[in-house]
Amino acid sequence: xxxxxxxxxxxxxxxxxxxxxxxxxIKTVAVYSTADKESLxxxxxxxxxxxxxxxxxxxxxxxxxxxxxxxxxxxxxxHPGYGxxxxxxxxxxVCEEYGVKFIGPTAKMIKLMGDKITAKDTMIKAKVPxxxxxxxxxxxxxxxxxxxAKVGYPVMLKATAGGGGKGMRVVExxxxxxxxxxxxxxxxxxxxxxxxxxxxxxxEEPRHIEIQIIGDQYGKVVHLSERxxxxxxxxxxxxxxxxxxxxxxxxxxxxxKAAIKAAKAINYEGVGTVEFLVDKYKKxxxxxxxxxxxxxxxxxxxxxxxDLIKEQIKVAAGEKLSGKNYYPELHSIECRINAEDPFxxxxxxxxxxxxxxxxxxxxxxxxTHAFAGYAVPPYYDxxxxxxxxxxxxxxxxxxxxxxxxxxxxxxxxxTTVPFHQQLMKNADFQSGNITTKFMxxxxxxxxxx
Length: 449
Hints:
Layout: E1 4-7, H1 11-23, E2 27-33, H2 40-44, E3 47-52, H3 63-73, E4 77-79, H4 89-98, E5 101-102, H5 107-114, H6 116-125, H7 141-151, E6 155-159, E7 169-171, H8 177-192, E8 197-201, E9 207-215, E10 221-233, E11 236-242, H9 249-264, E12 270-278, E13 284-290, H10 297-304, H11 308-316, E14 331-338, E15 340-341, E16 347-348, E17 351-352, E18 355-357, E19 364-368, E20 375-376, E21 383-391, H12 394-407, E22 409-411, H13 417-424, H14 427-431, H15 438-441
Parallel strand pairs: 1-2, 1-4, 2-3, 4-5
Antiparallel strand pairs: 6-7, 6-8, 9-10, 9-12, 10-11, 11-14, 12-13, 14-21, 15-16, 17-20, 18-22, 19-21
């Protein structure tokens, strides 16, 4: 087992990893930018190292600075959290070269799943269902139009190095293909330094459903059932839940087997998530694999009563999995609380929190690094807390979430709490009638200014 783990991240996920490490008797090292000097992950780690100014490129994305922190603290493991360098194959490779364990998959595994075209090819070989589309990068407009005509409009253009909804465009008709392709390429080039595009059939009434998996170093892979992440805005998740209100047990088992097959195709090690689109006919298609712990891992933890960070660390230390698949025994919903103004197009709202009171009670969990007096910096992701409620049924869970949101007090900045309050009362959400297009028609009622 590890003696000391450096957490190459910030905020709530860094704090989340520190908590589990402490319970396991493992020393922790926090790294931080000057903007995060007062953050709780810095306060609660055993050691803390400043790695640079606020800019991510000069701190949390700087591999040399993080490796210098590893060296001076003598850490024998690095936990990347999510975001930043968590899916950076080069970082995993450097850790390996330094003789430090990257708590996650190998560089080779990250590369195989990081490029979406390579990932899709791998899934086709493993006989995992994929969305019909191009075999690889679209080289010309003419080639793209030919493939689009074959799979049938509407089609979705996607960046091969994409993520977070960047470089994605829906094309309804052939006459708009060239224009949308050009826009998508410009956005992809600006976001990822790679303008390569591929094409897929646009899935009707899609639900975004992902399967949590864990693989050990001995070839064993198990799944921990699904999460439904269909409530999204601009391809960014807002709410996640487990189990999905759309899946039945037969489909759940079928998707679980497909996810295991996907992970085994690359001899996957560590925790990961195989993401699928599920259409209105309950046909599912591989979308991508996230080779890291995810923001929404919490709802899986609640419904199967397992600490996923602990499982992740144990697997990285060489422990064997029991070989058991897990299925939800309760219902859990997570609301992402962001420092954003939902009444003004969710624009960021950094600044100082004057008052902070998190909800409590049975089945209520809050993962946060925020507190009264904390200044939310403008340089990073706007998420400041995750509110997770768990109950025996979905209906009870929604009621518990409504009560918990009413108790959540964050003053001094705007947050998405009012949005979630309205969402929990929405008839379509309550009935489970949600797809990835749900937010296109959701009407937020403006409160009095």
